[in-house]
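Design a sequence for this backbone.
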C-alpha cells in the first residue's frame, strides 16, 4: 500500500494480522518482501506492518538518503495511520533507522528489536555491486535471465544476484529498477555511518526501552566494540545469537529467529 499524506509521500507497506502494531524495517538493497515469511508467523500475534524504506521497493525515490530522513518517513507513516504505540524491529540499515527512531520517539515504542547491526559506522563499500547495475542497458534486455547473465561477471555469487534482482520489475515496455541505485551510491557514507540524534551530543544519548540485539553466530556486524557502544547507549539491552546464521539470520534460521523474537516480546 502506498498512500499520500499531507502532500508528503508515504512509505509503501504490507499489513497483515491483528493485535498491537509491529513495524518491520528491512536492510540495504532490500524490501518488505524479504520479511514475508517472518511476518506471517508474527502476524499470528501482532498487527504486522512491513515497510519499504525510501529509495527501496515500491516506496518513493528521493535524492536525500540519510537516517534522520528515514526516521521522519517512519514517523509520518505512524502519524497517518494513527499508530500511537508499537513494537519496532529493523535489520541492518533498518536497524539503524529503528535505533534512531527509538531515541527520538521513545513514547511510541514499547519494545525494540535490532537485527545484526550496532549504532556505529562500518567500513563496507558497495560500489562493486551498484556500479555494474547502474551500467546495465536495461532497454537491451529481453528477459530477467538476460539481466542475470549480464551481472554474472561482476557479481559471481548467484544468491546475491538473485537478492539484488528482486528490485527488477517489468514496466509496459522493458524493465525498471525499484531501488534508486544512484541515490544509494551517492549517500553510501551516510548509510554505512550513523548519525546521532540532532538534539543530543555524540556519546550522551540513551534509549530506555527494552531492546533485543539479535545477531548471527557467523556474522561480524556486532563485535565487542559494537556491544560496548550498545551498552553505553541502551539502558536495557538484551543479546541473543542465532546459531549457524550469518547477516541474513531471519532468512537462514527463520524458526530460531522467530522463537527468539517472540520469547523477548513475551518476557520483557
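Sequence:
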Amino acid at each position: 500500500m502506498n498512500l499520500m499524506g499531507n502532500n508528503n509521500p508515504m512509505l509503501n507497506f504490507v499489513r497483515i494480522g491483528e493485535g498491537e502494531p509491529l513495524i518491520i524495517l528491512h536492510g540495504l538493497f532490500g524490501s518488505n518482501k524479504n520479511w514475508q515469511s517472518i511476518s506471517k508467523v508474527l502476524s499470528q500475534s501482532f498487527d504486522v506492518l512491513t515497510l519499504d524504506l525510501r529509495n527501496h521497493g515500491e516506496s518513493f525515490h528521493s535524492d536525500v538518503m540519510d537516517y534522520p530522513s528515514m526516521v521522519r518517513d517512519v514517523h509520518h507513516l505512524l502519524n497517518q495511520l494513527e499508530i500511537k504505540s508499537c513494537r519496532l524491529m529493523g535489520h541492518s540499515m533498518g536497524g539503524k533507522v529503528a535505533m534512531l527512531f527509538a531515541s527520538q520517539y521513545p513514547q511510541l515504542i514499547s519494545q525494540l528489536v535490532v537485527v545484526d547491526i550496532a549504532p556505529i559506522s562500518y567500513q563496507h563499500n558497495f560500489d562493486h555491486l551498484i556500479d555494474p547495475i547502474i551500467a546495465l542497458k536495461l532497454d537491451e534486455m529481453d528477459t530477467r535471465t538476460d539481466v542475470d547473465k549480464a551481472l554474472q561477471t561482476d557479481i559471481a555469487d548467484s544468491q546475491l544476484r538473485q537478492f539484488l534482482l528482486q528490485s527488477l520489475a517489468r514496466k509496459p515496455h522493458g524493465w525498471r529498477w525499484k531501488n534508486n541505485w544512484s541515490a544509494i551510491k551517492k549517500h553510501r557514507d551516510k548509510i554505512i555511518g550513523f548519525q546521532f540524534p540532532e538534539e543530543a551530543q555524540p556519546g550522551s544519548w540513551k534509549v530506555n526501552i527494552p531492546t533485543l540485539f539479535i545477531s548471527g553466530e557467523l556474522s561480524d556486524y556486532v563485535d565487542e566494540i559494537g556491544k560496548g557502544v550498545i551498552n553505553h547507549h541502551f539502558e536495557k539491552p538484551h543479546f541473543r545469537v542465532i546459531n549457524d546464521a550469518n547477516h541474513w539470520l531471519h532468512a537462514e534460521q527463520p524458526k530460531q529467529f522467530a522463537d527468539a523474537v517472540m520469547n523477548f516480546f513475551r518476557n520483557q
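The radius of gyration is 18 Å.
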